[in-house]
């Protein structure tokens, strides 16, 4: 069973343990502790000296007791005196929520009793309310605060930034803001004060507001929370902390916040001296989450799993399609054709889509392109081909105020297109999203799944679309193997010839013409920087029999972005894009160019980055990036990245010390007579 636990996590271990519990009583007595709740030894050993006791492990030989039915209505909790009337009133009357979701009905009673709870539940199932309700209830009925018998105005006046009672840790700014909005709605009649602590905001302004208004519930991201709590001059403290919540715990650890979480815990009061409840909600329960459980939760915490094995997850239930593009330059025309087709064939059905990109700058570029679309590309006064469909963008380069405004606007809108990086891929609840469109192969399988999970929520319909270059098809199939993704060939723009002068061609597709006309109006700086960022996100396993990845991204620069020549990429990026050597055998001294290592290893005779040990070669201090013709011809071995080389640039002259060549540089990056003189990349 321990092997199953290690391989597949807690769920498989629980199943294995149940099979042991099914044995006759005589056999069970050999390994059950009679005076304590039943915990398999294998599970207990993993958490020594703090054993983990799951709710699922009850002594089946004990006298059975009549189980009370779980309440399904929030009003039931109020009628039984379990939940404060002010909370019930807000939920039922102002939030218009009557019935509890499964994760709420299964966790609220334990959490309201002060138990530590680890709940496994999918996103979009009401987890936010499941942990906010008990922490607010516990603060309202705290004996030392006695808030329940005071007016809301008096509670606000007495709030202090040095007596925070609950902290909620979230992996992203947007999710933290969303949680804070829900918390403020739940506390509107009680007077409890909710504050946020997220990056991208003015720290000084936040501190002043917290000191002025006080704080009972602090919601934030790990970095900013640690920043506030560790600053001795911030005047933000939690000496009487009663609740600690980890939302999207698996995402917190995936994002690399393990150290910050440990540091935050060291700043909080000792749970052995100050009674504290810990609630953890997570879509999955990997070993990293269990490590945090061991460090933060009481040994007798409750584990509640609401993910049923017989229930198909969103990424199996939502119809998904992949579109193979002739070139990267075909992506936006194909997306535009998809949107226009939907609006023409289903005029009465709203189109509300999130478009995901693998880099921030590519997100911004595509948003700007769609913003500037015109029915007639030559006339800027012509109408937008998508009419009044709202368009917006969200990524890490926006301020937190801008990101909050965008998410709220898109959340309330019945239709629209949100151009997004991965900041919205998990946790955020956007109702009624009809389409999730992904441009380019995602970084990993989990990213694809969580992106698709933004649609088809709460039983609604939705579609997932993936647009990839045909050279990515093989690697994409391996990455997403087993998912119900079908290839779609209905979009003409996906395979259109973008090399021709489409604006002068009367037979060209309207979507192709409109995108090309829009791109021409975008600043060259944005196009160049976005292209570089995009190139870095192209998978290294790209393959077509007639083109390598470097040629594909160069075509995108010329035929998709309208640049006269493809800008120069860094050596590392070009190395990834030409990995394994191209058809002529001159790529980075790879296998086809007889080199033993990338960047022109010893014995490389090709025309790529370094020949015969020149440049980036092992222990060779002389020579440029190429010995033959790729960058320059360092006759004296002067240019390049040699370790002890006195000439520092790509210069052809041995004495020229300026970076990227000097006046005598005729073939490389030199400021004179360069092929790129007019394009300052």
TrEMBL record:
Residue stretches making up the Helicase C-terminal domain: 337-499
Cell membrane recorded as keyword: no
Catalytic class of the enzyme: hydrolase
One example GO MF annotation: ATP binding
Basic and acidic residues composition-biased segments: 642-668
Biased composition (Gly residues): 598-615
Region entry Disordered, spans: 577-615, 627-681
Catalytic activities: ATP + H2O = ADP + phosphate + H(+)
Helicase ATP-binding domain residues: 108-303
Superkingdom as given in the UniProt entry: Eukaryota
A Pfam match: Helicase_C
Assigned EC number: 3.6.4.13
Keyword line: ATP-binding, Helicase, Hydrolase, Nucleotide-binding, RNA-binding
Family (UniProt): Belongs to the DEAD box helicase family.
Recorded domain comment: The Q motif is unique to and characteristic of the DEAD box family of RNA helicases and controls ATP binding and hydrolysis.
Function: RNA helicase.
Protein name, as recorded: ATP-dependent RNA helicase
Organism of origin: Aspergillus ellipticus CBS 707.79
Lineage: Eukaryota, Fungi, Dikarya, Ascomycota, Pezizomycotina
């Amino acid at each position: 069973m321990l092997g199953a636990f290690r391989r597949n996590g807690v769920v498989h271990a629980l199943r294995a343990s149940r099979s042991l519990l099914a044995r006759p009583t005589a056999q069970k007595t050999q390994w059950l502790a009679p005076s304590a709740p039943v915990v398999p030894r294998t599970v207990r050993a993993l958490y020594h000296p703090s054993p983990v006791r799951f709710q699922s492990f009850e002594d089946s030989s004990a006298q059975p007791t009549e189980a009370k039915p779980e309440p399904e209505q929030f009003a039931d909790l109020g009628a039984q005196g379990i939940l404060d009337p002010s909370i019930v009133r807000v939920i039922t009357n102002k939030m218009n929520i009557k019935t509890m979701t499964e994760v709420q009905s299964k966790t609220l009673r334990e959490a309201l009793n002060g138990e530590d709870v680890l709940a496994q539940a999918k996103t979009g199932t009401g987890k936010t309310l499941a942990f906010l309700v008990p922490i607010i209830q516990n603060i309202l009925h705290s004996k030392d605060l006695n808030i329940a018998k005071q007016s809301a105005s008096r509670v606000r006046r007495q709030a202090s930034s040095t007596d925070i009672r609950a902290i909620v840790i979230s992996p992203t700014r947007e999710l933290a803001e969303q949680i804070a909005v829900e918390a403020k709605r739940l506390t509107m009649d009680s007077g409890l004060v909710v504050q946020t602590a997220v990056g991208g905001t003015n720290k000084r302004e936040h501190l002043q507001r917290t000191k002025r208004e006080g704080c009972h519930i602090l919601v934030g991201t790990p970095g900013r929370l640690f920043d506030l709590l560790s600053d001795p001059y911030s005047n933000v403290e939690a000496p009487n902390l009663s609740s600690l919540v980890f939302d999207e715990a698996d995402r917190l650890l995936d994002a690399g916040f393990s150290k910050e979480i440990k540091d935050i815990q060291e700043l909080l009061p000792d749970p052995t001296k100050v009674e504290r409840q810990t609630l953890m909600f997570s879509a999955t329960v990997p070993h990293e989450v269990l490590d945090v459980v061991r460090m933060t939760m009481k040994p007798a915490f409750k584990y509640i799993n609401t993910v049923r094995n017989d229930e198909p997850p969103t990424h199996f239930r939502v119809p998904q399609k992949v579109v193979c593009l002739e070139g990267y330059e075909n992506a936006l025309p194909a997306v535009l054709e998809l949107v226009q087709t939907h609006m023409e064939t289903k005029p009465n059905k709203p189109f509300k889509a999130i478009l995901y990109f693998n880099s921030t700058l590519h997100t911004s570029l595509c948003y700007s392109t769609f913003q500037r679309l015109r029915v007639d590309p030559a006339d800027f006064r012509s109408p937008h081909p998508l009419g009044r469909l709202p368009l917006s963008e969200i990524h890490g380069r926006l301020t937190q105020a801008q990101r909050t405004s965008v998410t709220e606007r898109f959340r309330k809108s019945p239709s629209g297109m949100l151009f997004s990086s991965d900041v919205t891929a998990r946790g955020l609840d956007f109702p009624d999203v009809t389409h999730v469109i992904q441009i380019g192969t995602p970084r990993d399988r989990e990213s694809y799944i969580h992106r698709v999970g933004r649609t088809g929520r709460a039983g609604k319909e939705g579609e997932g679309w993936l647009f990839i270059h045909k050279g990515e098809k093989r690697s994409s199939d391996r990455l997403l193997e087993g998912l119900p993704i079908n290839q779609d060939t209905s979009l003409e723009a996906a395979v259109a010839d973008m090399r021709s002068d489409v604006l002068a061609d009367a037979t060209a597709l309207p979507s192709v013409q409109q995108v090309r006309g829009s791109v021409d109006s975008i600043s060259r700086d944005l196009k160049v920087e976005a292209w570089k960022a995009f190139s870095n996100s192209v998978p290294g396993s790209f393959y077509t029999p007639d083109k390598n990845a470097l040629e594909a991204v160069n075509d995108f620069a010329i035929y998709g972005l309208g640049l006269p020549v493809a800008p120069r990429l860094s050596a590392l990026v070009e190395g990834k894009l030409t990995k394994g050597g191209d058809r002529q055998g001159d790529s980075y001294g790879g296998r086809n160019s007889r080199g033993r290592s990338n960047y022109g290893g010893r014995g490389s005779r090709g025309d790529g980055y370094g020949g015969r040990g020149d440049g980036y070669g092992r222990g060779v201090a002389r020579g440029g990036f190429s010995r033959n013709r790729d960058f320059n011809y360092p006759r004296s071995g002067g240019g390049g990245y040699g370790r002890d080389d006195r000439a520092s640039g790509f210069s052809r002259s041995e004495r020229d010390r300026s970076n990227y060549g000097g006046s005598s540089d005729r073939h490389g990056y030199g400021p004179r007579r360069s092929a790129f003189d007019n394009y300052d990349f």
